[in-house]
Amino acid sequence: MKASASIRKWAWLSFVLVVTLGELLWSFTPPPRAWVERWYSQGLFPAIASWLVPAVGVAPFSLSVSGLALVSILLVVGGCRGWLRRRKVGESAPWVLGVGACRVFTICVIGYGAFLVIWGAGYGRERLETRLELGSETPTVADVLRWVARLSGRIASSFPEPGARDREAALASLREALVETLRAWDGREPALSGRVKDLPPGSLLSFGTSGVTVPFFLEAHIDSGLHETEWLAVAAHELAHVAGYCAEADADFVAAVAGLSARNSYARYSVELWLFQKMAAALPESESRSAHAALPPGARDDLKSSQEAHSRHRIDLLARAQSRAYDAYLRSQRLEEGLKEYSTVVRLLVKAERKDIVRLD
Questions:
Q1: What does the H/E/C string look like for the chain?
Q2: pLDDT digits over 143-198, tens only?
Q3: Where are the domains of the chain?
Q4: I need a surface site. Which of 207, 314, 335, 338 has the fewest CB within 10 A?
């Protein structure tokens, strides 16, 4: 019996060491992006998502939040029980702490390995800018002004009539547009849930963020304190993450291209308004003010309500800390631009229009 237990112990230790070595190799000598694209993003990931996404989507509540709460409770209870049991048999406090530290290390190693297998390896896939051969040309201010003017016109024509703001119908339309867009680019239909989970108002906005996709469940969440038009645009972005587009710039680009082609006018309007903000932010201040002034009054009201939602819930200290941490995280995942990824969609859309991948006509 003791020999069997010893074999299991060494087998487990060997497994943990192999996983640790694999993670170190992935981090410091990552495989080529083309390899990741072929074998992971177009191979293993779709296989995982095909059963995980529908299974998680059945639950009307967040399995991620529930799972995190359960795991936290189990870790605290297990840690306390282990401490008491070991101290009771006479083991020293430093030894017990050392054993606990080893177990925490093991949990982190296995957790990071699961993160990479289920979703995180996709950070190393080919970027859409390369796959779609968008080129290296840098957009000019004139390009951005042209986009802003066209978006303003589209916003005016797609502005929802009173009573026409059906969030669920718009979300379904965005999901349909995402499926069609990614089927054309990837050659297969992505696994996308029709459900996006709401989190309590301020739970994300207080940290300066709006939505989050939890990799272990491929589950998209959005802060319910968001104004509805922004909620829909963020939903498109998070569903792009669920489809395996980990990089923020790529998720923004997928959401933009799909949203602009959505059949539902409210879905299109929400994405157009979101893109208008991004484009206008890339302009000189005077040009940006003029662009905002040219919007229909109702659209300006939506933008104002969106800004007020952020101001109402944002806690500057938490937001700054989250920004620094997330920037470091993105850079650790081979995204050298960090948080600047979020502004890249302006460049990508201008170049995509030149390639006739997206149209504003």
A1: CHHHHHHHHHHHHHHHHHHHHHHHHHHHCCCCHHHHHHHHHHHHHHHHHHHHHHHHHCCCCCHHHHHHHHHHHHHHHHHHHHHHHHHHCCCCHHHHHHHHHHHHHHHHHHHHHHHHHHCHHHHHCCCHHHHCCCCCCCCCHHHHHHHHHHHHHHHHHHCCCCCCCCHHHHHHHHHHHHHHHHHHHHCCCCCCCCCCEEECCCCCHHHCCCEEEECCCCEEEEECCCCHHHHHHHHHHHHHHHCCCCCHHHHHHHHHHHHHCCCCHHHHHHHHHHHHHHHHHCCCHHHHHHHHHCCCHHHHHHHHHHHHHHHHHCCHHHHHHHHHHHHHHHHHCCCCCHHHHHHHHHHHHHHHHHCCCCCCC
A2: 888 999 999 999 999 998 878 899 999 999 999 999 999 999 999 999 998 889 99
A3: 2-124, 128-354
A4: 314
Cα(186)–Cα(191) distance, rounded to whole angstroms?
A: 12
**pTM: predicted TM-score of the whole model, two decimal places:** 0.93
- What average pLDDT does the structure give for the chain? 90
Backbone angles phi, psi at 223, to 5 degrees: -65, 120
Rounded to whole angstroms, the Cα distance separating 190 from 179 reads: 6
Question: CB count, 10 Å around CB of 9?
Answer: 10
Per the structure block, which two tokens stand in for 298? 């109702």
Residue positions counted in the chain: 361
In the predicted structure, residue 79 carries a pLDDT above the cut 90: no
Q: Tell me the per-residue pLDDT of 265-308, one tens digit each, with 9 for 90 and over.
A: 999 999 999 999 999 988 888 888 999 999 999 999 999 999 99
Which tokens belong to 286? 């005077």
> Worst-scoring range by mean pLDDT, 1-5, 9-13, 292-296, 323-327?
1-5
| Mean pLDDT calculated for residue range 21-33 | 92
